[in-house]
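Re: the request from the purification team.
They wanted to know what the chain is likely to look like in 3D before they choose a buffer screen. I agreed to run a prediction and write the result into the notebook, where they can find it.
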Amino acid sequence: MTLYGFFSLLGGVGLFLYGMSMMSSGLREAAGNKLRSILERATSNRFAAVTVGVLVTLLIQSSSATDMMVISFVNSELMTLAQAIGVIMGANIGTTVTAQITAFNLGAYAPLILFTGAILYIFVKNNTTKHIGSIILGFGMLFFGISVVKSAITPLSQSAPFISFLSTLENPAVAVIFGVLFIALLQSSSSSVVIFQTFAIQGLISYDMTVYLVIGAAIGSVTPNLLASLTTNRNGKRTAVLNLLFNLIRAALMLLLITVFPLTDLIRSLTPGDIGHQVANTHTVFAILAVLLELPFADQIVRLSRLVVPVLPEENRAVEDRKLRYLVQTADLPSSVAIQQAKLELIRMGQMARNCLQKAADCFFTLDDQKADAVFETEDTIDILTDKIQNRLISFRSRNYAPQEVSILSQLLLVASDMERISDYAENIAEYEGEFKARKASLSDAAQEELRALAEASLRSIDYSLRIFEQEDFRSLAEAEALEQKVDDLQTEFINNHIQRLLNNECDPVGGVLFTDMVNDLERCSDHAINIAFALFEHDTSRSALSDRPAESLI
């Protein structure tokens, strides 16, 4: 092969990959958020989950993209591992459609497809039409890239070194390993199988060799997901392991089947003399058979993933924290009891939010990454609890409650939002810790002392407000307001002080930005705290006067 031919081969592969990417992006953009909503609605019915995986992957033409969305959903507790394995299995079927499409020789029509897509993408202003143009353009690039690859590899049939290399792949074990490594390098199972298909069509490799390459490709296809899972929590990692286990078992089953039964002869008989369709059909049949054989054992594969990535004691605690403890069976409860149960859930969540802020402040002052991770974990827990509590409260509003009770429910919904916002600000502060270290910022001792003082004042405001909410001791609202005002005053004072320090070059500008952001976040936490304190005040039946105790005594 000449240098020009080698560059042509690389260019054809690059054009094919870019076409796949462009077609996938266009499909995702055209579908909007529907794909995510479809995945989110994948139920515990495993057959429905498989169907969802097939459909979504058919739409976006990328099993890796589907699997990565699944990993993100499991990572954020929107999907369970039991649901995830069904979607992953379906994605493995959906991804085989690319080879089925490319089995048709449409290279001659690629220029016309490219021209049509370019006209729609460049000259039409309507977004939907532009997305369709992007899909058509990607489709054309895909086929044009295949044509370039075919032209580039034709001389390889006369290359003694290349033929010698391919002869080593006649060993099934070597072919499987090569398939794994090739896809791990290319990071696209669909693209790799199409390249193997093209080699087979050009007569460079036999059908039997391609079968083993396709089996190896299934294992190598999980590489992008394994890499993506490195930044996720342990459930996200288990999802990637699920995919790996499914494909390892799939490879073992297919190797067993083609050894024991004349499965490949049957596949060849479907399209005699058409090796392109034979390779595509092999890819599809293997994927469908793997799902049919493994789906009944999905629970066992999930358990095996938990053995590979063991469940830690803190994970069990997190799972328990994310469960509702009081709003469990509320169908037959009297309205007053149901509201009280909701309040108990909120008190528990409010304490979590308060502790989350305390952890965030500690992690900022100690620059401890482990404490920051604990903050992020707690914030995720609070987000999940907020959704569960608010959904349950909204369901109460459909019942025949008295107007005052409906009003209380509305206030409790707002309380849940206020508590969740406190945890959001805690997450911000934990992120500042990472920025502080990454950007090598510095703060003067005076600035750090002021941040500590403001954090303590904000936490005190939250503690006081949560106690008022829990005990409905509205005589203490004046003190709560005084604490909140104290935080406001400290915010103004400390920002003014810090501006002066910056002018005197006592703190660097990066530290100055982080200081201001943290001061503002702590003040906003206090604002949300006072909202919590006043939430049920209008519904206080006694309506006793506010306490006459001097507020200053608390400050």
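For the purification team: The chain has two domains: 3-308, 316-554.
Please add any questions underneath this entry.
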